[in-house]
Write a structure and sequence with these properties.
By secondary structure, this protein is α+β, with helices and mostly antiparallel strands. It is 31% helix and 20% strand. It contains 14 helices and 23 strands. The chain has a 7-stranded antiparallel beta sheet. A 5-stranded antiparallel beta sheet has the order 11-12-13-14-16, covered by helices on one side. Strands 4-9-10 form a 3-stranded antiparallel beta sheet. A hairpin with a 6-residue loop joins strand 6 and strand 7. It is globular and about 75 Å long.
Length: 551
């Protein structure tokens, strides 16, 4: 039974907030690992769709055959605005979220760039979201996806700001960076292949600097790219010194700290020497962080998921220790990011894990398995820190009900997004007390999903060989529905448990079996009073003096 509460009374306010913050920069994070940099040989990318006005749902576009002359509507992802139509090819592929049936996966982060390079013709119809979706519908490899994306903007114009795209398949992974050309049709772009033994990432700043433009195997770019930058006054050096990232973006300190720092904290997990790039992030050095590094150890799926949950723990940028974290060490700060005190401008850190994430994924593309099983999208809704990543194969054809369409203004007890929000928003108030209980449920679910993969995938491959693709797809759909229901039901129970255990600022105690303690007569035992940490009390006295002093 679906139980919805429509928040009609505040719909207008939510729309106003969306208009104010929906296009705010510093949103989205992509992390990347080549197949020789991962423990199992998979190519992995991540993506967090961060927006204050986005609902967490799993999209699906089925494979289809199209008659000659069929047209495809192009709709702007951020606003729903119709932009135009383009011809359909004879066949398009099955797309689950940001991965297609050939294990091609694409993520993005927006960085804006020079405002004058936004399309001024009014004729461009391909926005960044459409680029991703159309490329997934039409590409069998990462290189083919780059061809599709760059051909589209050349023919139909580019209707978005500066973007970085992560584009992976079962063999390799690329970063494509793109920006418009103002009154000129098309886009300026460059693409670089990340070495198989390397890790990389981008987070709302362009990252491709000096590369060998003559290396046709690993570097691709738009025709006349360097000449265009010279003509617009963005670059004046030799071709071999050209830096796309520096020509089309001004890397001011606050952007480095809010954006590149997220990539830095990922790098340092796998190579301690990467701590030297901290100086770039905080403005102590103007030597940029490299596009990619070779890690000291290989990255596992679980570690990639954990990287998406990063709050700068263990670094000078950690937000869990200062007074802003409150007595419960909350590693979050509400927007706006910037504030002023005594005429000076300050910022709150922007971590990978953030409260305004709509949905995120960690993708695995694997060349030793059939495409139907090799491509898996570990998908979760809401905050990456508290979400449960569920495995959905690229052959999926039915979206689980708990991950279907919804919106940010309509609460539903049957929605994975809303149950995750219910849990997370309780923890934002009493973080250090609640997060252990959340980790128990989250960890148990993810351990179940991950540990069962080898045996499950062996069975799926056997099923594909014996009964065919139709039987495999049915099995994939059934498992996805079961996992989505289990994760959603578990978090609904968890949300209610947290409310009961921590109601009224108290904390109910547990017995050895994890149940709420009761006295010998079966009545609930008296709760504990966690109170606040000493720093919090110290600050109260500092602020109030003797006002609260017991005389």
């Amino acid at each position: 039974m679906k139980r919805n509460l429509t928040l009609a009374g505040i719909a207008g306010a939510l729309l106003a907030i969306g208009a104010l913050y929906g296009s705010e920069a510093l949103a989205c994070t992509n992390l990347i690992a080549g197949k020789k940099a991962t423990t199992d040989g998979s190519v992995m990318i991540t993506y967090a769709a961060d927006s204050h006005n986005i609902y967490g749902e799993l999209s699906h576009t089925p494979a289809a055959d199209h008659p000659k002359g069929a047209m495809r509507k192009v709709v702007e992802w951020d606003t729903g605005k119709p932009l135009g139509e383009i011809p359909q090819p004879a066949h398009t592929y099955n797309v689950v979220g940001n991965m297609n049936e050939h294990q091609v996966a694409i993520g993005e982060t927006t960085w804006g760039g020079h405002e004058e390079l936004l399309d001024t013709t009014g004729q461009s119809i391909i926005d960044y979201g459409s680029l991703i979706q159309i490329a997934l519908e039409r590409s069998r490899s990462a290189r083919e996806a780059i061809d599709v994306m760059t051909d589209l903007v050349e023919k139909y114009g580019y209707a978005s700001e500066g973007e970085s795209f992560s584009i992976a398949d079962k063999d390799e992974v690329w970063i494509l960076e793109m920006i418009g050309k103002g009154a000129e049709k098309g886009a300026a772009w460059i693409a670089v292949r990340i070495p198989d033994d390397a890790i990389s990432g981008h987070a709302n700043e362009p990252r491709i600097r000096k590369v060998n433009l003559k290396d046709k195997e690993n570097v691709r770019h738009s025709k006349g790219l360097v000449d265009f930058a010279r003509r617009r006054g963005y670059f004046s050096g030799k071709d071999e010194d050209f830096s796309f990232a520096d020509a089309f973006f001004n890397h001011v300190l606050e952007d480095r700290r809010s954006c590149d720092a997220r990539v830095w904290t990922y790098f340092r997990r796998f190579k301690p020497e990467a701590d030297e790039y901290y100086a770039w992030c905080v403005g102590e050095s103007d030597d940029p962080m490299p596009l990619y590094i070779v890690p000291d150890r290989k990255v596992s799926l679980q570690e990639m998921q954990q990287s998406m949950r990063d709050h700068f723990e263990g670094t000078p940028l950690s937000m869990a220790e200062d007074v802003g974290a409150g007595p419960n060490h909350v590693p979050y700060r509400w927007r706006p990011m910037y504030f002023e005190v005594d005429g000076k401008r300050y910022l709150n850190e922007r971590a990978i894990a953030t409260q305004q994430t709509g949905w995120s994924f960690v993708s695995q593309s694997r060349d030793w398995l059939p495409d139907e099983v090799g491509g898996v999208l570990w998908f979760g809704t809401d905050d990456t820190n508290t979400t449960v990543y569920m495995p959905f194969y690229c052959s999926l054809t039915e979206v689980p009900a708990q991950l279907g369409e919804g919106d940010i203004a309509t609460f539903s007890m049957d929605s994975n997004f809303w149950m995750n929000n219910w849990v997370a928003n309780q923890a934002y108030n009493r973080y250090d007390l609640m997060i252990p209980d959340i980790r128990k449920v989250q960890g148990a679910l993810e351990e179940e999903f991950q540990s069962s993969r080898p045996e499950r995938e062996q069975a799926l491959v056997a099923l594909l060989g014996s009964d065919g693709r139709e039987a495999l797809v049915a099995a994939v759909n059934e498992e996805a529905a079961r996992y989505a229901k289990k994760a959603t039901d578990s978090y609904r129970d968890l949300a209610q448990y947290l409310l009961v255990r921590f109601m009224d600022g108290n904390m109910k105690n547990l017995d050895d079996d994890g149940n709420f303690k009761r006295n010998e007569y079966g009545m609930p035992a008296y709760p504990s009073f966690p109170g606040y940490d000493q720093k919090y009390y110290d600050n109260i006295v500092k602020d109030t003096g003797d006002k609260l002093l017991v005389k």
